[in-house]
Amino acid sequence: MNTFSPSPWSNGLVTMTNIGLVIIFGVMAYLCYRYFSYSNIASYQIIFWIVMVILVISVLSSVALMPRGVSTNEKGITVHLLLKKIDIPAEEIESISAFPANTKTIRVIGIGGLFGNVGLFSNEEIGKFSCYVTDFSKSYVISRKGKRPIVVSVADPTIFNGYKVVNSDNINSRSQQNLK
Questions:
Q1: Is 136 helix (H, G, I), strand (E, B) or coil?
Q2: Which of 54, 65, 95, 109 could form a disulfide with 118 if both were Cys (CB 3.0 to 4.6 A apart)?
Q3: pLDDT band for position 95 (50/70/90)?
Q4: Distances, alpha carbon 150 to alpha carbons 47, 128, 141, in Å
Q5: What pTM does this model have?
Q6: Which has the higher per-residue pLDDT, 164 or 55?
Q7: CB neighbour list of residue 73: distance below 8 Å, 6 or more residues apart
Q8: So what's the pLDDT on residue 47?
Q9: Which residues fall within 8 angstroms of residue 69, CB to CB, at 6 or more apart?
Q10: Has residue 174 got a pLDDT over 70?
Q11: DSSP string, 77-94
């Protein structure tokens, strides 16, 4: 049976994304204004195009990697990003547990706050892990055999019921809180 749970957005992520987009589009508008005002200066034209390309690539890559949700079936778990799917075969999954609360998490490389937290992250309890999260309070660690763990956000953690769930009481209490 296929089940899908969307990735819920935290209030902090919504705020960060909105502020980030306002700043990025504000800088782009200002650069366009300046470009058409001083278009005869060659050095400004070069700077304009370099900055515009960097900003456009930043926004497009953030949108492309935005976590949309997680689905499960008898074959395994699939993490859905906007333009990509990450399949985790069932035989590769060791356990699933709630993401440890109140742990200092460091982004090693990736996106942190514009449409999600995506990339390689690290903390003391899990070590290095791949992260596809929109709300850390509704996130779960998928431990894999011989591979780096993956952390995902789901609105309904009961989609993991067919797998070995560690701290199931914690997950069940979280699912009750998430459904209220």
A1: helix
A2: 65
A3: very high
A4: 39, 9, 6
A5: 0.82
A6: 55
A7: 1, 2, 3
A8: 84
A9: 4, 5, 6, 7, 80, 154, 155
A10: no
A11: EEEEESS-EEEEEGGGEE
**Partners of 98 in the beta sheet?**
140
Question: What is the secondary structure of 39-100 as a DSSP string?
Answer: TT-HHHHHHHHHHHHHHHHHHHHHHHT-EEEEEEETTEEEEEESS-EEEEEGGGEEEEEEPP
Residue 180, pLDDT > 80, answer no
Q: How far is CA 110 from CA 18, 61, 71, 75, 106, in A?
A: 19, 10, 23, 28, 11
> What's the CA gap between 43 and 104, in Å, rounded?
43
Length of the chain (residues)? 180
Residue 169's pLDDT band (boundaries 50, 70, 90)?
A: low
Q: What is the distance between the alpha carbons of residues 134 and 5, in angstroms, rounded to a whole number?
A: 13
Query: Crossing angle of helices 11-37/42-64, nearest 10°?
Result: 160
Q: What is the CA radius of gyration of the chain?
A: 20
